[in-house]
Design a protein that fits this description.
144 residues, mainly alpha, 3 helices, 68% helix, rod-shaped
Amino acid sequence: MSKIKDPSKKNNKKKLPLHPFELVWYTLCCLVGIWGITYIVLGLVAENLPIKATNEGLVKVNLDFAKKFGLDFLGWGLIILAIASLAAVIVLLLFSNKVDREYEKNVRRAQRLAQLEAEEEKAEAKEAEIIDVEVAPAQEEKAE
């Protein structure tokens, strides 16, 4: 009998460690996070600049931004960074569940293959027990 080949031991091609969809989401979360960090830095610089609020520049932009949107750069930066972090955690959880399912599927497949191989070995052992014996023909006495 031929041995059953393990499909997981095939000539595996190198795979991307990340699914393309996962990579897109991580990139998007990273870009939104950088946007939030930029707002945080702008807000901190605008609040701590050693100039008067009457000067043109970042301080005035920060005040105008606060009047239009209700929060200054620092507040919006914190909100945007929190949203990006939450989205990255959700994507990480979704794809880690997928990896866990694939791992469990491979373990079950390996167990089934091991069971099939054990049954095949038992069948081969039974075949080996059967002994082919040649029986010599009985010689009859010739009647004279």
